[in-house]
Amino acid sequence: MRAEYLLSLHGFDLASEQHTVRDTAFLMEQLELREELDEIEQAKDEARLESFIKRVKKMFDTRHQLMVEQLDNETWDAAADTVRSCVFLDKLRSSAEQLEEKLLDF
Question: Best exposed site among 46, 64, 67, 72 by fewest CB in 10 Å?
Answer without folding.
Answer: 72
